[in-house]
Model the fold of this input.
Amino acid sequence: MKLNHPFSVLYRREINLIRVIVVLLFFISGNLKWFSPEMQLVDELTHDTWLSFLPGWLGQDGTSYFLAVVQAAISVALLGGIVFPALGIAGGLAAIASALITLNLLPAAMSVSVVGLALKEILLGSAAAAIVYFDFRAFFHQRLVIIE
Done:
């Protein structure tokens, strides 16, 4: 067994450790959206941005609840990527989109202390890109093995 082979056991353990950490961060971040302080932050981030339609459709608290459910779905998809790489690809792409959307909203909310949030989103987006890369390779590796 070569350790530098992308499908070696060691490499899978490392990427799955990254996957579990990203899932935990999304799970914790999503669960915080059910509470008042995080709801206020969501309101401030969506107030004068291109997402300002969400409170009109879902209500002030509904926007936060919606984002909590979306983050839970991303967590489940990323975790499912351990067994089904296609789910990992979908969850990783959704995590990257989530990070990019949040980073896009930050300039409008400069009154809020957003440095920690920006760093978290950059870290999550980068880790999700690594997960997508690994799951993409695993997905096509499975397809090649089945065809042969």
Remarks:
- DSSP finds six helices and no strands in the chain.
- The longest helix spans residues 115-147.
